[in-house]
C-alpha cells in the first residue's frame, strides 16, 4: 500500500493544480497536496512551484482561467504572478487548436473566463484587439459573451469574434482552427445582422432567408438575444 501511494503521489506531483491532484483508490481518498482544503477555501494553487508547472505546458495558464471561472476560485498570488509573467509564451508554444478548445470548454461561464483571462495576463495575447477597446466597449463585449453562454456554439463564438473583428470575424475563426461550417456561420451572422432591421418588404426578408439558408434561425437568435444596435459592433 505504501508503494502504491508513493507512486500516485509522484504522479500527482506533475498535475497542475492541487484541486485536480486528488484520487480515489477503492475507499481511500488520496489527496497529497490538500486539494480538498483548497476547494473548501475556494483557492486555486499550483502543485509545487507555479512557474515550473506552467513551463511544462503553457496551456495550463488558460486552464487556470477556466477552473477559476467555473468554480469561482481565487488565485493564489504566486500562481497569478507566474501566469502574468509567462503568458506571452502561450501563443509561442501552444497550438491554436488547444487554446480554442479551452475557450469552447469555458462556454457556460464565458464572460467570467475572459475576465479571468485578463486578470491572468493572457487575454491580450490571444485577442490583442481587446486592447483597442474602451472600458465601455469592453463591458459591452463581455455582456454579449454572457448572453451567448446558454446558446449554441455558433452564437457563442460569434459573440466573441464579431464585436472584435467585424468583417474579419470569419477569417479570425478560420485562424482559430474552427470548423468550416462554424467559420462560415460567423461570417454570415456578421454580414446579415443589420439586414433584418433594415428590410422594408417581404421580398427583402425572403432574400435574407435565402442567403442565410441553414443559418437563418441562428441569425434570428443572434439578433434578438445578442446583437444590440447600440453595441460596439456599430460604433
Please explain how this structure is put together.
This protein is mainly alpha-helical. It is 64% helix and 4% strand. It is built from 16 helices and four strands. It has helices at residues 2-12, 35-41, 50-56, 59-71, 77-86, 89-93, 96-105, 110-119, 123-126, 135-148, 153-165, 169-175, 180-192, 195-198, 202-212, 216-226; strands spanning 23-25, 28-30, 43-44, 74-75. The strands form two sheets. It has a two-stranded antiparallel sheet. Helix 4 packs parallel to helix 7, helix 10 (135-148) runs antiparallel to helix 11 (153-165) and helix 11 (153-165) packs across helix 13 (180-192). The model is unreliable at 1-5 and 229-235 (pLDDT under 50).
Key structural traits:
235 residues, two-stranded parallel sheet, 16 helices, 4% strand, elongated
What class, by secondary structure content? Answer: mainly alpha
> Given the C-alpha coordinates, what overall shape results?
elongated
Strand content: under 5%
Write the element-wise H/E pattern from the N-terminal end onward. HEEHEHHEHHHHHHHHHHHH
Mean pLDDT across every amino acid position: 87
- Helical percentage: 55-70%
How many strands?
4
The quaternary state of the protein chains shown equals single chain
In short:
This protein has 235 residues and is mostly helical.
Walk me through the topology.
Blueprint: H1 2-12, E1 23-25, E2 28-30, H2 35-41, E3 43-44, H3 50-56, H4 59-71, E4 74-75, H5 77-86, H6 89-93, H7 96-105, H8 110-119, H9 123-126, H10 135-148, H11 153-165, H12 169-175, H13 180-192, H14 195-198, H15 202-212, H16 216-226
Parallel strand pairs: 3-4
Antiparallel strand pairs: 1-2
Amino acid at each position: 500500500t505504501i508503494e502504491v501511494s508513493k507512486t500516485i503521489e509522484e504522479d500527482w506531483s506533475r498535475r497542475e493544480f492541487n484541486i485536480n491532484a486528488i484520487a480515489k483508490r477503492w475507499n481511500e481518498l488520496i489527496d497529497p497536496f490538500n486539494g480538498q482544503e483548497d476547494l473548501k477555501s475556494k483557492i486555486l494553487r499550483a502543485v509545487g512551484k507555479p512557474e515550473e508547472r506552467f513551463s511544462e505546458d503553457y496551456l495550463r495558464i488558460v486552464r487556470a482561467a477556466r477552473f477559476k471561472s467555473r468554480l469561482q476560485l481565487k488565485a493564489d498570488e504566486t500562481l497569478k504572478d507566474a501566469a502574468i509573467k509567462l503568458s506571452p509564451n502561450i501563443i509561442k508554444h501552444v497550438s491554436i487548436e488547444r487554446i480554442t478548445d479551452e475557450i469552447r470548454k469555458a462556454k457556460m461561464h464565458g464572460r467570467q473566463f475572459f475576465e479571468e483571462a485578463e486578470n491572468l495576463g493572457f487575454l491580450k495575447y490571444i485577442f490583442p484587439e481587446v486592447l483597442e477597446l474602451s472600458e465601455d466597449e469592453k463591458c459591452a463585449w463581455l455582456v454579449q459573451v454572457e448572453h451567448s453562454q446558454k446558446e449554441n456554439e455558433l452564437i457563442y463564438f460569434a459573440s466573441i469574434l464579431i464585436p472584435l473583428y467585424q468583417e474579419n470575424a470569419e477569417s479570425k475563426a478560420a485562424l482559430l482552427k474552427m470548423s468550416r461550417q462554424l467559420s462560415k456561420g460567423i461570417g454570415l451572422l456578421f454580414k446579415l445582422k443589420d439586414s433584418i432591421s433594415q428590410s422594408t418588404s417581404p421580398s427583402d426578408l425572403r432574400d435574407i432567408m435565402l442567403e442565410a439558408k441553414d443559418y437563418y434561425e441562428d441569425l434570428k437568435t443572434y439578433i434578438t438575444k445578442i446583437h444590440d444596435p447600440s453595441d460596439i459592433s456599430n460604433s
